[in-house]
């Protein structure tokens, strides 16, 4: 602000004779007023210099410099400099109001995600300000690249050509948006008219201090939606469906259901019953009590055995009853035919007959009679029957015992044959050493096995606090195994919970991996099976899973050229085979039971076979010949 001219005030001062002229008070008052005006102007100038502000807001106010001057001296004309400043001040205030109005228009346009007047589309944010607390930008990343970069552990299906090629990353905070490339950063936050930008994984996550990873799909092909709500963080997903307990009905309202509820109206997860004659909860309590009363003595017995058979602090464990024993015999005979050393294998038989068979094949055993003795010795007639379910409890015990003694465990079912030693892979492959548990893929992507589809018949566990508590929890949840008729279903749900709750590192190999094929490949990937049979794959084991009965397992293995058991050792005890008692400490069953070469026979032309079985019948109606 310009100060008032001092010269004008001086010209108005009267002259007088100090001797003869009496003192007139009016000039003195005028002088005081002028001095005050100068003081105020100087203060205003000084304040503006110090704070970068001005006193224009007081212009023409009752206490303003102009006002004081006009009141003190009404005869003077208006200062032209002050008038000029006044005009500029008014103009500035008008511009400020216009800018406020323009800002309101911009805010409204952003909230509605539409362009506003005189504003380019590239400046419209992708998310409105009403979502800025949990969504400030979005980017795409190639799904396969993202999984390869982080290896989340989930069995991620390949995205190329599937409609799942890309994953999306939503940035919850502006600070998380990539900053190394300004043009990409702008495209992440603003709509540039070119769709959601595609970034490489490293750039997309370079500023993410934390990242929530969500796997979603629609295996039942329903009209599914996904709601993401900014709120108190939750690491579980709620499932809502239009149902009253039956199949989906579009006329019904959405209601909260179990995550295992299928669109056809079946719930795969239901609470074990406490009441009733066959209470699974009470049965579980009884079994758990026996375990707790004997666990210390069992561990004491096992420790010297594990010390002897373990290799690099790891042991391969199997459990078997007499009804499945010929599959155990085939595992041992096929391994011997290929020259594998099974000195690191420990069998947990559930009956004395199987104990003798295993020892007669040169395998180490531990018979936990108090816990496993009451289990049935008959073979399962089908998947999920009472014999099958009862053996699931033995699968829990034979893994938890070595883990509690701090030994790593490779658990496998008995319907497996070796091509290469799998223990070498789990102990030596650098890329998987940070995982606590690693599973073969089951092959079935049904609701009951979500989110991992882990096969509970072949997996590796590193002994640590997380894995020990995982299998302790599985033991505590054995009532779920009894209720659901599935050890696998209960284990998969605990894997998901412990991964979220404790940070358990879970790895499930993709179902298309060459290393650990099984029933999925046998029944549905015939091109892979042809390559495997020719020795053109990097395969460690083959697991004859996805097969309803033991009878079919035997026939399928014979047809594959993977059966090494002489007929007289099928469904027979050691004494039946030898005609006498088994000599202690001798592998007396190897010679009479194990064939040096595979015993081959054709059975079904629509299933994989080592050589053509085109003249055989089909087992599945309508299937084409494998050859």
Automatic annotation (TrEMBL):
Keywords: Membrane, Transmembrane, Transmembrane helix. It holds the Pfam family Nucleotid_trans. InterPro entries: Nucl-diP-sugar_transferase (IPR005069), UDP-D-xylose:L-fucose_XylT (IPR052636). Residues 343-556 form the Nucleotide-diphospho-sugar transferase domain. It comes from the Eukaryota. The chain crosses the membrane at residues 28-51. This is Nucleotide-diphospho-sugar transferase domain-containing protein. It comes from Cyclotella atomus.
């Amino acid at each position: 602000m310009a100060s008032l001219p001092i010269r004008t005030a001086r010209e108005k001062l009267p002259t007088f004779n100090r001797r003869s002229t009496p003192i007139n008070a009016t000039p003195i008052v005028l002088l005081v007023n002028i001095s005050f005006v100068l003081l105020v102007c100087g203060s205003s100038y000084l304040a503006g210099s110090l704070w970068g502000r001005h006193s224009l807001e007081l212009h023409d106010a009752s206490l303003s410099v102009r006002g004081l001057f006009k009141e003190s001296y009404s005869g003077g004309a208006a200062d032209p400099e002050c008038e000029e400043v006044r005009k500029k001040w008014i103009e500035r205030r008008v511009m400020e109001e216009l800018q406020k109005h323009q800002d309101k228009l911009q805010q409204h346009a952003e909230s509605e995600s539409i362009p506003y007047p005189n504003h380019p589309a590239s400046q419209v944010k992708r998310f409105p300000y009403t979502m800025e607390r949990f969504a400030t930008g979005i980017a795409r990343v190639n799904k396969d690249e993202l999984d390869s970069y982080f290896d989340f552990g989930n069995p991620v299906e390949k995205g190329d050509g599937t409609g799942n090629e890309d994953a999306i990353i939503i940035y919850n905070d502006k600070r998380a948006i990539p900053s190394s490339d300004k043009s990409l950063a702008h495209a992440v936050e603003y709509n540039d008219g070119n769709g959601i930008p595609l970034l490489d994984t490293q750039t997309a996550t370079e500023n993410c201090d934390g990242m929530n990873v969500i796997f979603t799909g629609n295996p039942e092909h329903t009209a599914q939606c996904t709601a993401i709500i900014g709120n108190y963080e939750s690491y579980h997903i709620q499932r809502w469906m239009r149902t009253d307990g039956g199949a989906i009905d579009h006329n019904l309202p959405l209601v909260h259901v179990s995550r295992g509820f299928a669109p056809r109206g079946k719930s795969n997860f239901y609470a074990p019953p406490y009441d009733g004659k066959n209470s699974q909860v009470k049965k579980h309590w009884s079994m758990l009590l026996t375990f707790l009363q004997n666990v210390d003595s069992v561990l004491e017995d096992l420790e010297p055995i594990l010390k002897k058979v373990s290799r690099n602090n790891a042991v391969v464990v199997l459990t078997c009853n007499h009804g499945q024993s010929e599959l155990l015999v085939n595992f041992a005979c096929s391994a011997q035919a290929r020259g594998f050393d099974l000195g690191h294998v420990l069998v947990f038989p559930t009956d004395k007959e199987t104990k003798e068979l295993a020892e007669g094949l040169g395998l180490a055993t531990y018979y936990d009679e108090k816990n496993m003795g009451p289990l049935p010795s008959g073979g399962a007639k089908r998947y999920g029957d009472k014999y099958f379910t009862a053996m699931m409890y033995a699968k829990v015990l034979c893994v938890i015992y070595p883990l509690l003694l701090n030994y790593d465990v490779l658990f496998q079912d008995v319907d497996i044959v070796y091509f290469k030693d799998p223990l070498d892979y789990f102990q030596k492959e650098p890329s998987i050493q940070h995982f606590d548990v690693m599973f073969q893929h089951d092959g079935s992507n049904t609701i009951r096995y979500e989110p991992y589809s882990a096969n509970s018949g072949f997996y590796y566990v590193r002994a640590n606090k997380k894995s020990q508590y995982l299998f302790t929890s599985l033991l505590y949840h054995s009532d779920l195994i009894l209720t659901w008729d599935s050890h696998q279903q209960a284990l998969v749900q605990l894997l998901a919970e412990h991964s979220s709750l404790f940070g358990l590192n879970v790895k499930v190999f993709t179902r298309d991996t060459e290393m650990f094929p099984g029933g999925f490949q046998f029944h549905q990937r015939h091109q892979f099976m042809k390559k495997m049979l020719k020795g053109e794959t990097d395969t460690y084991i083959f697991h004859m899973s996805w097969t309803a009965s033991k009878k079919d397992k035997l026939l399928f293995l014979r047809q594959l050229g993977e059966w090494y058991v002489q007929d007289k050792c099928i469904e027979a005890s050691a004494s039946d085979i030898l005609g006498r008692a088994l000599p202690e400490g001798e592998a007396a069953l190897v010679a009479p039971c194990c064939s040096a070469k595979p015993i081959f026979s054709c059975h079904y032309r629509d299933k994989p076979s080592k050589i053509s079985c085109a003249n055989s019948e089909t087992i599945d109606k309508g299937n084409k010949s494998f050859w």
